[in-house]
Amino acid sequence: MNWKETLVLIFLTSIIFSTLGASIGLSHWSRLESSTHAEIRLDSADQLLKFADVVNRTVVYSFDVFWPMKPGKTTLSAYVKNLQCSEKGYTIEIITMDGRVFRTSDLGSFQFERKDPFLYFHVVLNVSPKCRVVPSKEGPEVVIDAETK
Amino acid sequence: MKWVLRNSLSDYLFVEVLAVVLAAVIVGSVTAYVSADSIYKASIMGGTVTPILGAPGQLSGQSPEKPPEYYAEQYLNIKERIANQFGKLVWSNSSLLSAVYAIGVLIALFPFAYRMRVSFVPLLFRERTGPVSLVLKGFVLSLGFLLPLFASVVMPLVMVKRNWLSGIEASSLLMLAAILLSLLLLLTVSVYSTYILWGRVDLALVFTLLLAFGLSGKLGFGWKTVEAFLGTFLGLLGFMAVSIERRWISL
């Protein structure tokens, strides 16, 4: 083996090893989770929902979600628990940070690509006056499942 | 130059290849570990984490809905904040990083330096000492040998920038890379200059570790750290130049 080949060997082997170490090590050693299940209570909206029918007004409730989470292709599904609606019920609007807006009126799931160590989106919940709160301990909740592949 | 390389890479070849690769793996994986841990902490500290049960939301009557652009801007702010935190958190492990880098530099350099006889002081086996020109050539060559080490320090940061934090300004990541590279440069010249002057690995390691701990413990996360490291690097170079010149006169 001549010395040029040797130098090339040293460079290539060590760069390959350190690239492998960096790419495997980063995802393996980081404690970022790859899935989250959350049940988010609509604290102050609870009382209002009870009277929405009487005053015939749509209740709009919105909040931001920020969770540390592994980057990658993310599947997000959302629905509302403890809320009973006749025909046109609630709509959930999820604004992801690449500017896209997802709308669902039932159990719906969306997929989008993320390149951050966190998940950040805005949720707007529109509840029509046709809906009625089911008596329960927690009251109405938005259930969100997020999973990264 | 060709002769030097051929001579030095003959019978200790595999030891030398192994040493550089091993050092690159050690340095790269420790940097990756620290980065992975820091990105987790940074992404918790960088934003307000929403609790799994119950979120502070608002009713539409309390404040009007904002357009999606507002959230996009918020998101970029959060990302920039996380990148800043990431740099600071990586540098908060400065003593671990400088110890590992010093040992990595020593592992990568020693077989080559020993084989090349770059020391002025033959303490180990009464072998012949190196002439001045060989010492200089050895120094330049060992900087080349350390290129894989430099690459493996930068690699985890590049990956974090590319796959985890793309689309930000990245000035803090640039500063972090500059700090780590100048630290590695300083440790290299420290190991090298002590080795050629004293001819002993243990003294070289002790001196380098003392220098690294003394400096990095005091220095914060900023461009001043790069200046301090580069200044010390130049000082050691000057010291090496003076000793080489004295050697030249005495020969």
Description:
The complex is a heterodimer of chains A (149) and B (251). Chain A is an alpha+beta fold. Chain A has 2 domains: 1-30; 35-148, Jelly Rolls (Sandwich). Chain A is built from 2 helices and 10 strands, in the order αβαβββββββββ. In chain A, the strands form 3 sheets. Chain A has a 4-stranded antiparallel β-sheet with strand order 1-10-3-7, with no helix packed on it. The longest helix of chain A has 27 residues, at 3-29. Chain A is rod-shaped. The mean pLDDT of chain A is 82. Chain B has 251 residues and is mainly alpha-helical. Chain B has one domain (2-42, 70-250). In chain B, 77% of the residues lie in helices and 1% in strands. In chain B, helix 3 (68-91) packs parallel to helix 7, helix 7 (171-198) packs antiparallel against helix 8 and helix 7 runs parallel beside helix 9 (223-250). Chain B starts with a helix and ends with a helix. The model of chain B has no long low-confidence stretch (mean pLDDT 83). The interface between A and B is large, with 60 and 66 residues. Strand 2 of chain A pairs antiparallel with strand 1 of chain B.
The most extensive interface, with participating residues per chain, is: A-B, 60 and 66 residues
Q: Give the class-level CATH name of the largest domain in chain A.
A: Mainly Beta
Strand order of the largest sheet of chain A: 1-10-3-7
Secondary-structure element order of chain B, as H and E? Answer: HHEHHHHHHH
Strand content of chain A: over 45%
As a percent range, the share of strand residues of chain B is under 5%
- Give a count of the beta strands of chain B, DSSP E runs of length 2 or more: 1
Helix content of chain B: over 70%
* Shape designation of chain B: elongated
How many helices of chain B in DSSP terms? 9
Task: Count up the helices of chain A.
Answer: 2
Based on the coordinates given, report the CATH architecture of the largest domain in chain A. Answer: Sandwich
What characterizes the major β-sheet of chain B? none
CATH topology category name of the largest domain in chain A: Jelly Rolls
Radius of gyration of chain A, taken over Cα atoms and rounded to an integer in Å = 23 Å
